[in-house]
């Protein structure tokens, strides 16, 4: 009886300490950004985002998806979208986690860090570099 209770407690401990998101079969490490989600299952494999928030559902998490017009390049056109969304609650522009519910300068900061590059990379898209 005691052994059963101990086994149940250990099982619960294993479930609680398991990674936040299980990847597809065969998906095992590494976890480049340290958010406890293996790169092959991480929708932003280079940026820590354990919540995996992806407002537009393109399999690229918001934190690395500031190519808001999906042009393939993070540039001034995307800034225009952010400026129009500023102060509002458009979930596509809520980048940092946990987000505040209001588009603000912190979200702009993430766009600035990625300026000139492309969205991603995401381990959950067909291509590890495309997030369109
Ligand atoms: Ca990760
Ligand atoms: Ca990540
Ligand atoms: Ca996205």
Architecture blueprint of SSEs:
Blueprint: H1 2-17, H2 76-85, H3 105-114
The structure holds calcium ion (3 copies).
Can you walk me through this structure?
This protein is an all-alpha fold. It has one domain. The protein has three helices and no strands. The radius of gyration is 18 Å and the shape is globular. It starts with a helix and ends in an 18-residue tail after the last helix. The protein binds calcium ion (3 copies).
The helix/strand order is: HHH
What integer value in Å does the Rg equal?
A: 18 Å
- List cofactors, ions and other ligands: calcium ion
Number of helices: 3
**What is the 3D shape?**
globular
Distance between the termini: 55 Å
Biggest beta sheet attributes: none
Helix fraction by DSSP (H/I, runs of at least 4) = 25-40%
- Count of individual domains: 1
**Unreliable stretches covering 5 or more consecutive residues:** 6-20
Q: What's the total count of β strands?
A: 0
Structural class: mainly alpha
**Average pLDDT metric:** 83
Instruction: Quote the beta fraction.
Output: under 5%
Describe what is shown at a glance.
By secondary structure, the chain is an all-alpha fold. It is 27% helix and 0% strand. Residues 6-20 have low confidence and may be disordered.
